[in-house]
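User: We ran a pulldown and think these components assemble together. Before we commit to crystallization trials, I'd like a predicted model of the whole complex to look at. Sequences follow.
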Amino acid sequence: MALSGFFLLVFLLQHCTINFLSVINPESFNNVSHFMGTNPLVQFALQPILAFGVIFHLGMGIRLEFQNRLSRPIKYEMEKAAENATWMSRNMIITGVMILLFFGLHFYDFWFPELNTKFIIGDMSGLNAGGEFRYYEELKHKFIDPTRVGLYVVSFLFLSLHLMHGFHSAFQSVGFRHNKYTPIIKKLGMLYAIAIPAGFVFIALFHFINH
Amino acid sequence: MTENGMNLTLKVWRQKSDKDKGQIETYQVKDISEHMSFLEMMDTMNEQLITAGKEPVAFDHDCREGICGSCSLFINGEAHGPDRGVTTCQLHMRKFKDGDTIYIEPWRSKAFPVIKDLVVDRTGFDRIMNAGGFISVNTSGNTQDANSIPIPKDDADHAFDAATCIGCGACVATCKNASAMLFVSAKVSQLALLPQGKIEAKDRVLNMVGQMDAEGFGSCTNTGACEVECPKGISLDNIARMNREFMSASITSDK
Amino acid sequence: MAKLDAKIPEGPIKDKWTNHKNNINVVNPANKRLIDVIVVGTGLAGGSAAASLAELGYNVKSFCFQDSPRRAHSIAAQGGINAAKNYQNDGDSTYRLFYDTVKGGDYRSREANVYRLAEVSTNIIDQCVAQGVPFAREYGGLLDNRSFGGVLVSRTFYAKGQTGQQLLLGAYSAMSRQIGKGKIKMFNRHEMMDLVIVGGKARGIISRNLITGEIARHSAHAVVIASGGYGNVFFLSTNAMGSNTSAAWKIHKKGAFFANPCYTQIHPTCIPRSGEYQSKLTLMSESLRNDGRIWVPKNMKDVEAIRAGSMKPVEIKAEDRDYYLERRYPAFGNLVPRDVASRAAKERCDAGYGVNATGEAVYLDFASAIMRYGKEKAIIIHEPNASEARIQELGKKVIEDKYGNLFQMYEKITNDNPYETPMQIYPAVHYTMGGVWVDYNLMTTIPGCYAAGEANFSDHGANRLGASALMQGLADGYFVLPYTIGDYLANDIRTGEVSTSSAEFDEAEQVVKERLNFFINNKGTKSVDHFHKRLGKVMWDKVGMSRNTQGLKEAADEIRVIKEEFWKDVMVPGELNELNQELEKAGRVADFLELGELFAKDALDRNESCGGHFREESVEPDGEQKGEAKRDDVNFKYAAAWEWKGDPKDAELHKEELTFNDIELKQRSYK
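Assistant: Here's a predicted model for the assembly, 1137 residues in total across the polymer chains.
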């Protein structure tokens, strides 16, 4: 879990950074998106690794949850779980599944059309009918619908909760714990868990407001 | 509250044997002094039951000073009750107030089946110890002098802190996954921190973790609940150390 | 006394053990595999014996009534373990440890055993460190020591206030290793119900599975009883709730002599009783007396003000406090042995100076130690001008490092913060020096039946010094029994497996079953605890810290009455073949009722004051020691070994005369 988690943490950072370009400079966003979308190394090496990482993280997470539930076949009549552990740490499966549902929407919005354009239709040019890069326009277009923006915002809230536990937990799982550094990691984790989803939310709202 | 103390409603898990299904029964107790320990309150309840010709509630307890690790009650939704850093026997009634309803349940875990009422079978912990919780030295009058290997005080202190685990099982009871990582890691850590224990450290961690999994304990998802409820304050540091030991042993062990 | 042969080896005391080891029989490794040994109890003595015997190659069957061998009550020992390592360069030696222990025991222990104990003490520390026991260390990485009551050197090794726990977990680890290898067969939640003797030799036990109620037969070539002491005969003691005398008592009734039952240690530093519902007493380690000063107010008006709650102890000025131990015993002060400290507390409380509502509490005060350590620490960290508040803060930190867990435990129980206000303490029953009589080889008067640890009587005489119980338990289990049992078993290599289908096993099983059936079917009106509490009260009032002829006679009579009522009117709910904690208790209390009577009889017989046994008729009449205990070496220099004759009142006394060749008998002065 932790290793795939680390990988996904890096991916998220990268994803957020590229997306942020759409706010700062649409042109570089288009260039980087095109590079990411057409570079064979990214497409045929990194993308499958990413897909594997996501599926592994998901699969393991769900498997773990079921196994762990089996470890306590009879529940307590009265349990005060909030007294000794945070909601985030106890509900990774809920936040995780919410993120999974979000993937559905996200793939429907971007990944499937992208696959369709590139591999079914066979258009690898990345250009729209006007002969310009299509990526920025497509992105902007998606954030016109307030329902979709709302769904995005809520999903990123779940991502934030997931990361609030996931970030430092990954370090603990690989055995990295130190009196000096662990408090820093926890703070960094909190920062990451707020900043990255906030970044995505900001991008969505930015485009929604500016359309 | 009467002049003599508190009146309480107890919701106690009753189960005749491991084959029985079991259910919560409700009992009333009167005149409970705030100076009583929780188990003395249980004694009072049992005395009442016996006098009324009923069978008393079975629960594990022995030293009643927080060190043997026998007592194991899940009280009002928390292992060893609402106080921190105590076992059930050290919990005092001053933590409750008149009119309270108190749920008293056994540890719940697939690996700790109920034997009767509030008594559970924790021999899984013993089997984990049998798998590697030791340093393989025979008794001998000729071991080297105790001072021949100086051990940095910090290491000795950390080893001691881990070694204070009483094996009560509160970590398992409280963990949402019924994981035994805190218990196992405390022993792994204690021995990994000492030069004497390093010699068979790899086998130890692999064997103990293997047995832990075989017993049916869940896995650790780092919620940290165990550390909070542990009566001896065993730190999550130990789990991290065991994770480290386990990974490095898995990678480097040639077995 | 033909019946009692202590089998003390010949030769000078320092060579006895070595010579003995060189001359006794040894079982060859191939034959050890053919020999079974039963060990009852998994504390320091039983655990270490089981592990060591299994390492040697014997097939060990180990029994404990707890759910795991790790829970034996040795785990609760706090303060430390003595060893004559002389790491502190303060003049310690095997002889000095031997001398202190014999003197501390008020010259009522067996010299040769004590010398052996002192001799192997150093091996214990080596062994435990090799096992990974995390003893306290100094910054240089070497082992730390502290001092304990009744001695003038620092020889106590410790692991904060949890030394017993760490040592027991060491022994438990060693056992775990053998259990994993199949060399120890572990029977958790099993109680020994009786000893089986075949052909005059101990050949097995009858056990009850405490979960299913199943009665089973177990055979062996030798049986080791390491079931601890009998302090719970007082109902309230620092023993665990389950601690009992039954295993020891069962072998007594089968022929093992029971020695010096009246020697009980009343520990001076326990948390006072708070009410009738009290189920047990909690010890605060004696190590606290290293830094705590014991006192009561000098003036009765202050005592009254404190009891009324109108005055706090910290408000009493230094000159209005009676540091009675420092006053009476200037040489040892607060570090006098336990029996002396306990009686002194009782004396002050009986005189009306007790500081709580029950009148049974004295103060143990850390204020001076906090200031002293604070000043030292301030110098170390270069704060020569530290304010008083800062010094206190530093001092509290030092105290916390030393006794943190004990202070926390005290606060949890009493709701008082001992860093701010003095602790209240009062003596409580803690340890029993008496026990099954054993010879030098730790064999009882039943061939093949051994007793080790607190269950035997041999090493502490009439009073045990602090940090010596752990030493004795481990010495017996690690370093004595594994040798001496071989001497006996060497004659058993051709016996083969002992059969459990014999008339002797049939009969023993039958008796056990009948008794259990009786309890279940008796359907009386009173709970087991009712009788246990009554017994405890008689014991405490009349056979407690100080004893006299009249009280002891009354006690014996009263115990008989309670015993009769018990057998008529005890109620044991539940069933035979299930987990039945009341049934377990019933069997144990039945044995306590018999032991209690023998206890009073032994106390009556011993018309002298020695160690933990204080007879009001035997005190120093005048001189510097006026009012102190008066020992009578002319008439009572013996171990009293009682033989069972069907009833405690008919028990027959056998005397083992104690000879002291290497130590001069002196009055035990701590002034």
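Chain B has nine helices and seven strands. That may be worth checking against your pulldown data before setting up trials.

User: Thanks, that helps.
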